Amino acid sequence: MAKHQSLLKAKQLFLDYYLQLLPQFVSTAQIDAYLSTRNPQVILVSPYHEDKIKKLWQKQKLTWTPLAWFPHTLLWPENADLGQSLPGFTQGWLYPLNPSSLLPILALDPKPSDAILDASAAPGGKTIAMANYLFPHSPNIVANDVSRPRFKRLCTALKLFGYPQIATLSSPIQTLSQKLNKSFTKILLDAPCSSEKHVYNSKFHLKIWSPKRINTLCQLQSVLIKSLLPFLGSNGRLIYSTCALAPAENEDTANKILSKHPEINLQPIPDSVFSLTNLETPDHTFLRLNSTNSGFDPMFIAIFSKH
Question: Domain of life here (predicted)?
């Protein structure tokens, strides 16, 4: 009983805090509904095993519906429960993720000629999505992550999916220059963030949540972007993305970088990305998915370029 009351109190503190922070919500009940909604995932499919997977799905009479706006990706089968193990999962040929995770890849717009750094890559979904986007061209990607357990998951995922040729590193971004001496035309920083939807649905993380964590993460995010700028070539593109709701981790962090680095410009979010989100009043300066956009989990995207 005491544990239950403690959890309820933690939830209420969380909801009250974000109600003050986010004007798009008019009640804590609305925030609760938004964060509690389980959106259907999409599934990245290994191009190297696609025919085998399709035959396995046909045997189980699973619906095979490609996602219209991203290659080698499927909608979750209509006749399968969300989250159930599907043929191809155990072999590592499939990778489920929320469709919002694909939007930074579209904003990055990888080309076969690009040298790409995925700076915080584990557990590997966005790296695999980039490689699928470029297929059948060989991806020129360096995938880095500081966490050793997550890095091991990244390496395993790439190998099983069919992309063992992707270079991998495990280094803090702040000291990446000690291991990496090259420039990139495209950099993706899917930054560590508050990840409020995950926190809200995790009893453990909700109980230890504190607004102070936002300040700590803001400082880290600014340091990470600053550390990556020397790797960005002239006219290169750096995507800064988070799944945070807090503006301090999103617009505020982006604007702080712009104010301190005159060599960096902010590029508008392409119409092709906005058209997928059902935003009623799109502001092309940033992409913010942080209210009731159907089918998408929270996502923020800023596009930096160096001149």
Answer: Bacteria
pLDDT of residue 218: 97
**Record: fold of 40-97:** Alpha-Beta Plaits (3.30.70)
Nearest CA-CA partner of 49 in 103, 99, 90, 77: 90
> Cis ω on the peptide bond leading into residue 123 (within 30° of 0)?
yes
Asked if residue 125 belongs to a known ligand binding site, the reply is yes
Distance set, CA 117 to CA 31, 73, 85, 233 (Å):
35, 22, 31, 12
Q: Which residues are catalytic?
A: 243
190 marked ligand binding residue: yes
How many angstroms separate the CA atoms of 24 and 44, rounded? 32
Domain ranges within the chain, ordered by starting residue: 2-36, 40-97, 99-306
Is 138 annotated to bind a ligand? Reply is: no
Amino acid in position 242: T
Angle CA(104)–CA(108)–CA(112) in degrees, nearest 5? 130
The whole-angstrom separation of Cα 155 and Cα 12 is 39
Taking a C-beta distance cutoff of 8 angstroms, is the pair 26, 292 a contact? no
Name the nearest CA neighbour of 193 among 145, 143, 149, 244.
244
Q: What is the CA radius of gyration of the chain?
A: 20
Whether the pLDDT of residue 173 is over 80: the answer is yes
* pLDDT of 291 higher than 80: no
The candidate with the shortest Cα–Cα distance to 241, out of 307, 287, 296, 291, is 287
Residues 99-306: name the CATH superfamily.
Answer: Vaccinia Virus protein VP39 (3.40.50.150)
State yes or no: 122 annotated in a binding site.
yes
Is the whole model's pTM more than 0.90, yes or no?
yes
